[in-house]
Amino acid sequence: MSRISIWQRIPLGVQGVVFNSLPLLAVLITALFAYYSNHQRERMELSLNRHFEMVESLVDVHTALLSAESSLRGYLLTHDTAELQPAIQAQTIVPDKLTHVRTLIQTIPKENRRVEKLGRLDAIQGQVATELNVLARFSAGSSVPDPAALVLQNQPQFDALLQQLAALRDNEQRLLSKRIDEIRSVRQRDFMLIFLSVFVGLVSRAIALYFFHRRVVRRVRQLTENVRRLRDSASPVHEPSGHADDIGELEREFARASAFLAERRIS
C-alpha cells in the first residue's frame, strides 16, 4: 500500500488537524530555539561584561604604575614632593583595581580557567606589593640613602611587572573580541531562525491550502455538479474519487443513490 493511499484513508478531520498543526509546530520550535538563544546570549553577555571590566581595570593599573614611575623620576630631577602625587594615588588605585580583577576572575564558571588566572594574578600582586613598598618609601617622606640607585635597581622588576600586566590584559582583550564575535554569530543565527520559521509557516500553510482545495473544494464542486445533473435527470459526470474520507463516503453514497434512481426510471 502506497503512502498516498494510506494518507487518503485518514479521515478528513485528522488531515485538517495535521496540516493546521504544522505552523504551530514551527512556532513551537522557534520558541524553543529562542529560549535557548536567549539563555546562551545572557551567558555571553555576562562573560563579555566580565572581560570588559577586567581589561578596563588592568589598563587603569598599568596607567597608574606608569604615572607613579614617571613621578619618581620627576621627583629625582626636581626634588619637589608635588611630583610624588601620582605615586601616592597609585598606592590606593592599584590595590583596589587588582581586588576588583580578582573578584571578576572568581566569577569565571570554568574552574581550570579560574585557577589559571588567579595564579597569574597572584604573581602580579606579589610584584605590585614590592613596587608599592618602593613608592611608599618615597611618598612617606622618609630618607632614602640613594634614591636614584633604588629606582634603577627596581627598574627590571618594574618592567617585568608591566609585561605581565600587558600579557594578562591582551589575553582578556582577545577573549573580549571572541565573545563579541560569538554574540554576532548568535544574533545572525537568530535572524536565520526567524526567517526559516516564517518560511516553514508560510510553506506549510500553502500546502494546507493546496490540499484543502484539492481534497475538499474541488470534490465538493464535482459533487454539487453531479447533484445538479441528477436534478435535471442527467447522468453524473464525476465518478467517486475512491478516497476513504468523509467526502469519499458521501461520493459513494451519492453514486449508489444515482444508480438506484436510474434503475427506477428504467423500470
TrEMBL record:
<dbReference type="InterPro" id="IPR003660">
    <property type="entry name" value="HAMP_dom"/>
</dbReference>
<keyword id="KW-1133">Transmembrane helix</keyword>
<dbReference type="GO" id="GO:0007165">
    <property type="term" value="P:signal transduction"/>
</dbReference>
<feature type="transmembrane region" description="Helical">
    <location>
        <begin position="191"/>
        <end position="212"/>
    </location>
</feature>
<feature type="domain" description="HAMP">
    <location>
        <begin position="214"/>
        <end position="266"/>
    </location>
</feature>
<dbReference type="InterPro" id="IPR007891">
    <property type="entry name" value="CHASE3"/>
</dbReference>
<dbReference type="GO" id="GO:0016020">
    <property type="term" value="C:membrane"/>
</dbReference>
<dbReference type="Pfam" id="PF05227">
    <property type="entry name" value="CHASE3"/>
</dbReference>
<keyword id="KW-0812">Transmembrane</keyword>
<feature type="transmembrane region" description="Helical">
    <location>
        <begin position="12"/>
        <end position="36"/>
    </location>
</feature>
<keyword id="KW-0472">Membrane</keyword>
<protein>
    <submittedName>
        <fullName>Putative sensor with HAMP domain</fullName>
    </submittedName>
</protein>
